[in-house]
Amino acid sequence: MKITQKTQKAIIYSLFVLFTIYYSSFTAFAAGTAGADFLRMGVGARPIALGEAYVGLADDVNSMYWNPAGLTNIKGREVSANYIMWLEGISSGQLSFAQKGANGSVIGIGVNYLTTGSVEQTEIDTNNSYVITGKTFSSQDMAVNVSMGKPIGEDTVGGISVKMIQSSIEAESANSYAADAGVLIDLINYDLPLMLGISVQNLGAGIKYMQDTASLPMTYRAGVSYIYLIDKSEDKVNIMLDVSKSVDSAMSLHAGAEYLVGKSVALRAGYKNSGNSESLAGLSGGFGYKDKSGIGIDYAWVPYGDLGVTHRISITNRF
Length: 319
Fold this sequence. Notes:
The chain is mostly beta strands. It has a single domain (5-318), classed as Porin, CATH 2.40.160.60. Helix content is 9%, strand content 52%. The chain is built from three helices and 18 strands. The protein has helices at 5-24, 45-49, 63-66, and strands at 77-85, 91-100, 106-115, 119-124, 130-137, 139-151, 156-169, 172-186, 195-203, 207-209, 212-214, 219-229, 236-246, 252-261, 265-272, 283-290, 295-303, 309-318. Strands 1-2-3-6-7-8-9-12-13-14-15-16-17-18 form a 14-stranded antiparallel β-barrel.
């Protein structure tokens, strides 16, 4: 078995990131202290239906968010539009486009936004109690990213994303910049029928609101995917297992399974260990359909216990 120098470097880098994830999971954190929290909201109905276990499977335009190395799996051009019916009137959407270039590289661009709609304004009265003023305010967040995926070794691909972030609450606004990076390693040459994926999201100096600066929600992700081909048919099963760790939260475990019926229909289920003990919280599910022209639709259903259920829809065109 021959291991190239580039692959050796990729493995060393991957082990370093895994160690960082392991170490940071035991360090103290202050929950909910990071800013630009909308950056945590996963992109794409397919990855969400799979319990957000996608860093090792990343094989479409959604890779720009989860692991930009996965862009190299795009064969031509791919465009995707996503919409999220979130909780309490909050809505979010994404638009992504990627195209294959020279030397196996793929370039992509994406826009991600979130809006809260109208929120009742409150203030503290003389009794230190919150009272409604009768006024409303709103907040909007947006990120624009440029991404690239490229082969970096015999069995390794890498990717990077650079993003501009803008956030506004009522009359106040803030701007920042961040970067994502990731690798995908095919372990078949190591007698393991697995893909190993590792990514780091939202690397940046922070975002400043008025006089206060909040750290970005930097997140480490690592995961593996296994593809099982069903004999005497075009059907196959994808099985994924991921771990993730943000700077201000504990480590999370993600698991997902996808059953592909031929080349048109996909059934999906997932689980995310979010620490919520309420009934059904952490579970997810969904389906996908793609016609012969390359146009596909994906749906994800995600319950949040007493908070309600969210629905996500993605429309993708591959050409």
